[in-house]
Recover the amino acids of this structure.
């Protein structure tokens, strides 16, 4: 199912299968973009907490893991201190003062998950250990579509959590 179809299907209703759909979209993105890992992170108390993860690399990332936000590419991208699309992060790491990583990052795409009230929830991010000069703005647009889907999931969950009869 395309991201646009998922956005349309979830625009006005809470969908209990949305977690699975987000996971499917993430896997599809990772495969289409030839990335090693794709994830959704939440910015929480100065940390980047991984909420959805698909893929594997030398940098192990698992759901529930957390790392200091200041040591992430994600924070720099959200703050506008680094580009959302990097075909070879190693070529721009010094220019944008990107933090050191356990292994060199090649291609990297990241975009904020923006809630309807303008708050930043976190990011949707993907990377590979190899550079990928074939990545283009349309690839970033796909990632942005996934970020909109995640924002809807977050807002639907927030709404569900406010209904007392669902929490009994």
């Amino acid at each position: 199912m395309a991201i646009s179809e998922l956005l349309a299907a979830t625009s006005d209703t809470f969908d209990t299968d949305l977690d699975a759909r987000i996971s499917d979209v993430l896997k599809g993105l990772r495969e289409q973009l030839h990335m090693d890992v794709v994830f959704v992170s939440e910015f929480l108390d100065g940390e980047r907490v991984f909420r959805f993860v698909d893929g594997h690399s030398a940098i192990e990332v698992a759901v529930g893991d957390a790392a200091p936000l200041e040591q992430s590419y994600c924070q720099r991208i959200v703050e506008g201190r680094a580009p959302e699309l990097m075909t070879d992060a190693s070529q721009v790491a010094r220019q944008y003062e990107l933090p050191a990583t356990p292994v060199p990052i090649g291609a990297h795409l990241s975009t904020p998950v923006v809630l309807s009230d303008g708050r930043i929830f976190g990011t949707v991010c993907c990377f590979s250990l190899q550079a990928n000069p074939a990545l283009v703005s349309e690839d970033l647009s796909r990632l942005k579509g996934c970020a909109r889907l995640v924002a809807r999931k977050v807002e639907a969950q927030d709404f569900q959590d406010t209904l007392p009869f669902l929490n009994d």
